[in-house]
Amino acid sequence: MSSRQALIAELKQQGGCTLQSLKEKLGLSENALRHHLGQLEHEGFLSISEKREGVGRPAKVYGLSSYAEGLFPKRYGELLGIILEEAHDKDWLEPLIKGVVDKLVKQISSNLTGKSAEERLMYLLEHLDYGEMLGQLEATEQGWELRAYNCVYRDAGCKFEAICDLLPRVISEVTGLDTVRPFCQRDGNRACTFEISRH
After folding, report:
1. What would the pLDDT profile of 145-184 be if each residue is shown by its tens digit?
2. How far is CA 6 from CA 36, 72, 136, 193, in A?
3. For 3-71, which CATH class?
């Protein structure tokens, strides 16, 4: 384990730590610790508070921010796969997807009263983290074409096609615009493509 990994693990296990406690636990120099802590702070993974102990300047207390959760392995994909497989085997998958779509639409639409279809579409893509999808949106004669080069649901969609229909269904219901998915990464395409019609 590198010094950085050991520091991150210590902050995860112990919560708030002072520079002194980290030096004693990890056996690193103050300069090395300050270097790693500075990097973690710059990357948004560190939270810093102060703790007063008697007289004098308060000690800084270091912990991990919520963003640091991404540094630790998670097994959500495995759990989701089991849940979806069970739902599929019991013919619950379509009602489950419909419930998910309904909740997303309700959650998103509450902020869109009085907005045009195009404004709804732009808000929706931002809300669904369009940038994380490595998405490209282009205007066409019929409306728009959205290409997502990083389908965030790809693994689940490769096993259960109904997952691939989730995004076009949400787009259609939130915007009122007809949306189809002619190409999909599950079929070996480089991008999932969604055609969104103005009419």
Report:
1. 999 999 888 888 999 999 999 999 999 999 999 999 999 9
2. 11, 13, 39, 43
3. mainly alpha
- Give tens-digit pLDDT for 52-84: 777 778 889 999 998 898 888 888 888 988 999
| Whole-angstrom distance, CA of residue 89 vs CA of residue 87 | 6
- Comparing CA positions, the residue from 131, 138, 142 lying closest to residue 178 is 142
Token code pair at residue 67:
């963003």
Measured distance CA(192)–CA(183) in Å, rounded? 5
Tell me, yes or no, if the pTM score tops 0.85. Answer: no
Maximum Cα–Cα distance for the chain, whole Å? 71
Helix axes 30-42, 3-14, angle to 10 degrees: 70
Could you tell me the CA-to-CA distances from 132 to 135, 136, 173 in Å, in that order?
A: 7, 11, 22
Query: Which helix (H) or strand (E) covers residue 11, if one does?
Result: helix 3-14
> Which CATH homologous superfamily contains domain 76-197?
H-NOX domain (3.90.1520.10)
Residues of the chain with CATH 1.10.10.10: 3-71
CATH 3.90.1520.10 segments of the chain: 76-197
Sequence letter at residue 41? E
Distance CA 25, CA 117 (A): 57
Q: Which residues contact 124 (CB under 8 A, 6 or more apart)?
A: 108, 170, 171, 174, 175
Could you identify the residue written with the tokens 């939270």? 47
